[in-house]
Structures are given as C-alpha cells and as structure tokens.
Specification:
Layout: H1 6-28, E1 30-38, E2 44-52, E3 55-60, E4 67-68, E5 73-75, E6 78-83, H2 122-128, E7 131-136, E8 143-151, H3 157-160, E9 161-171, H4 186-198, H5 226-235, E10 240-245, H6 248-261, E11 265-269, H7 277-282, E12 287-289, H8 308-314, E13 319-321, H9 332-341, H10 346-353, H11 356-359, E14 376-379, E15 390-395, E16 398-400, H12 405-413
Parallel strand pairs: 1-4, 1-5, 6-7, 9-10, 10-11, 11-12, 12-13
Antiparallel strand pairs: 1-2, 2-3, 5-14, 7-8, 8-9, 14-15, 15-16
Length: 414
C-alpha cells in the first residue's frame, strides 16, 4: 500500500507527534524512581534517575520522585566496542555494503561517517534489543580507515555522532592480506605497515619567520595528501591505532609496533588473547574483545576458547566486548552471558557491554552518573538473560519508541 495507505499515514503522524512531545519533555526534564540501576562501570544502586537538558542530573537512592518503574532494571544499554552498524543493510545485496573500500588496501583517510546511514533499518532493531551506540568499524583492507563512535538514534549522522575520528584500523595476520594492492603474507603485512609509518613521521614544526630580502618570497609550506594528514594525526596520538588481530603472534606484533612508533594502541578481536594476556596487561593496552563465541575454525584462531574473556580479565587486561557483524548485533548480551558462564564476573560483563568501550575514549556515554548523557534502557530483568525484555529506551533524555520494521510487520500480519 505504501505511503498512500491512510493507516500508515496515521501511524507516521502519530510517530512524529510522539517524537515532538518526547523532545519537549526532555527539554523540561523528568525523573524515574524505584529501579535497580546498573551504572555501567560494574557497580549498581537502587533508586531513580533525574534528567535535565538531556543529561543525568542525579542518580541513586536520593531520587524519590517521578514515574515508578516497579523495581525493573535500568542500565546504560549496550555500547558495542566494534561493529559495522549503519554500514551494512542486506547481506545478499552488495549495493548496501559500505563497510570497506575496495579500491585500495591502504586507505587511512577513509572515514566510516561518510558511509554511515542513520536511517538504516538495522538500527531500530538494535534499539529494540537495547543497543544505543557502537564503535562503527570498517571491515576490509590492510589499513581499513577511520572508526567513529555513533549512536543508534538520531535524524542525521551529525546528530548520531559521538566521536570522530575514534581510531584508525589496521588488520594484521591473514585478514590483512589480499585486496587491491595488498600484501599476500604476514611478512608483507608487517613490512607494509612499518613502511607506511616510517614514511609519515610527525612533521617538523614550521621554521621561525625571518626577515626577507628585497624580492625574496617566503618559503611555501609543505602540502600533504589526506592520507598523510590522517597518518600524522595518528602519530601525534590524536586518534588511536586499533589493531585487528586474532593469533597470539600477531598480537605480539601489534604490541611491538605500538611501542616502537609511540602509538596510542588498542587491540580488536584477540581470539588467542589468553595466550599472551600478561603481555597485553603489561603494555596497558585495552582490548575490544570478541566475538566471545569465535571458533577455532581457522589458523588464526586455533586457540579460541569461551573462557578467553575470563582469563584475560584475571590477568588484568581491560576489556570491552564486540560483535562481528551488523545483523543480530543484539546477541551481544548472549555473548556476554556465555563469557559469564565461563568465568567472567557478571559485573564486569555488564561493564564490558556498556561503559568500558566508550570509557577507553573518555566519553560520557555508556555510564549512568551525574553529567553523563541521559541514554539508558529499562528491562524487566537481568540484561544478560535471554528471556529478559527491553521495555523502554531513552536517548539523550528522549523516550524513544521501541519499534522496528520487524515489530511493525508482526503487528500488521498477526
């Protein structure tokens, strides 16, 4: 029927009116009370949350006014530490895949925000599952491009944006081979990355201006390509160097590269991280770990095991959890539950799917504290239990509709 359908027109008008009223309420502020509140950092309190201007004004037992939530659970929602959300729509339609640039294996200047679709049908499905944001990552190439933290709500990319650039993604091991102009072996991967970093050191500061002789022209400042400017920012630690690695030897290579070039390094994946957990902890390098259910199905992941997160946490590694794809990203709670079943403390699992990832960047999302963004989720129980339902979501103080294309189809054809 499409947009000519009067029922659909009425529905869309209702959604628009609800969004307007929600924004108006958010501007005025609101309070909720009588909830079990998981703060996103491994701690929890009982009480309520007071919101003003899209920010949390107070949280805890001192908030006794506002809507009664009946003892249900509030937590900051999931902030996935790595997924191509908004970049991948239909699996069997390549025209909807914007997660990787195939023209070149080395594209440090490529930015995921240029391909992010804030109107992707995947995003409402994520919100219904309790996902409020993600580190959006490219997924192809040796130097795949620049990641960004984005919300799963917002009318435009700029509205959804939390931080850009968040980091430059390097793919080590077998994943970094192949592609247009890419290396064909691990030796080639390491060589190409080192050559790239060696060729792009931090530029020298401009010389002091000097008095020019008559007829003498001032020296022209050097010009740089967009790729060079991106690599200079990386070398100045203005963005993180995120190394996608799985095999223990590749993890060691990433640690060595970050130390040798003075990079603000971070690891992503780490299926065999438990084998070198003490080395990762000694380097004080955070890990965007996962998927937890990675199998020993390739020569890069032969030592993959379900207690990887528990073993790395016990060694003192700072962890946040991630998923591998855009569809079914809401299964991150299940992944975290499996990590708990295999030894990761429950409190640490909650932190690993909410506050830890954004916290590595010092962002005020994924946690519930005064001054933080008022984005959180209400559930009817433990977020890691598969039968727990998301009842409501708030984004920057706005009560978001818990609807998706899937729920609309269910309501239409049931």
């Amino acid at each position: 029927m499409g947009f000519a359908d009067p029922t659909r027109r009425a529905f869309l008008a209702g959604v628009a009116a609800a969004a307007f009223m929600a924004r108006a309420r958010a501007a005025d502020g609101f309070s909720v009370r009588n909830a079990r509140i998981l703060l996103g950092d491994g701690k929890e309190v009982k009480g309520g949350i007071r919101v003003a201007g899209g920010k949390i004004e107070a949280v805890g037992p001192e908030v006794q006014d506002g809507e009664d939530l009946g003892g249900n659970v509030i937590y900051p929602g999931m902030w996935i530490a790595g997924a191509p959300l908004g970049m991948w729509e239909v699996d069997l339609e390549p025209g909807t895949h914007d997660d990787g640039e195939g023209m070149n294996a080395v594209v440090p200047q490529a930015r995921v925000v240029d391909g992010y679709n804030p109107r992707s049908e995947v995003l409402p499905v994520c919100r219904v599952g309790g996902i409020l944001g993600a580190l959006v990552t490219p997924t192809a190439g040796l130097v795949a491009g620049q990641c960004a933290w984005l919300r799963t709500f917002g009318d435009s990319t700029s509205d959804a944006l939390v931080k850009d650039p968040a980091g430059m993604l390097f793919r080590l091991g077998h994943a970094g081979t192949g592609g247009n102009g890419g290396p064909t072996s691990r030796m080639g991967v390491a060589t190409m990355i080192r050559d790239l970093l060696d060729a792009n050191p931090i530029p020298d500061p401009p010389p002091e201006p000097k008095k020019l002789k008559k007829g003498e022209e001032p020296p022209k400042p050097p010009t740089y390509t967009s790729a060079q400017l991106a690599l200079h920012a990386l070398r100045r630690k203005e963005m993180k160097a995120i190394f996608a690695v799985e095999r223990a030897s590749d993890i060691r290579m990433a640690l060595e590269m970050a130390a040798a070039y003075g990079l603000d390094g971070m690891l992503l994946g780490c299926a065999e991280g438990h084998l070198v957990a003490k080395e990762i902890a000694a380097a004080n390098m955070p890990v965007l770990l996962g998927p937890v259910t990675t199998q020993p199905s390739s020569f890069d992941t032969l030592a993959a095991r379900y207690d990887n997160a528990a073993l790395m946490h016990a060694a003192g590694v700072k962890l946040a959890l991630r998923v591998g794809g855009a569809h079914n990203a809401r299964d991150l709670t299940t992944e975290a539950g499996i990590a708990v079943a295999y030894g990761l403390p429950w409190e640490q699992a909650i932190a690993a799917i909410s506050g830890n990832g954004p916290g590595f960047w010092g962002l005020d999302v994924g946690v519930l504290r005064p001054g933080a963004e008022a984005s959180f989720v209400l559930t009817d129980g433990d977020p890691l239990q598969p039968r727990t339902r998301v009842l409501r979501t708030w984004g920057r103080g706005v009560d978001l509709p818990v609807r998706s294309r899937q729920t609309e189809l269910y309501e239409r054809f049931r």
